[in-house]
Specification:
Number of helices: 4
Largest sheet: 4 strands, antiparallel
CATH topology: Alpha-Beta Plaits
Strand order of the largest sheet: 2-3-1-4
CATH architecture: 2-Layer Sandwich
Radius of gyration: 18 Å
Distance between the termini: 26 Å
Strand content: 25-35%
Number of domains: 1
Structural class: alpha+beta
CATH class: Alpha Beta
Mean pLDDT: 86
Shape: globular
Number of strands: 4
Amino acid sequence: MKTVILGIFVAVAFAGLGPLHAEESSFRHVVCFKFKDGTSDAEVAEIEQAFAALKDKIETITDFEWGTSENIEPLNDEFTHCFLVTFKDKAGLEVYLPHPDHKAFVSLLKPKLDKVFVFDYQPR
């Protein structure tokens, strides 16, 4: 019960303060992949490189990072890769999604993809 009360207190105390650690206008696009069984290391590397190359092809991307799962807890639902794409604002994501270079990347990725998880948010 103390934890719930403390959580409510913190939420109320910080309500309306806006982002504490991020620029107010930034927008994040998180994408996690699980590749199909039989996808070779070379094919995965090609996809990693193609995704990273989008930062130089799509002007609305302001930052890009990625990594592979190093989970200590077995809670990653077999997702192996996580990519974090940052835009100045949500409008940047709206330009990115239909962009021809993004669509070409998706065409490369789809035949090798077993599962995908996407989560978009504005940092607070």
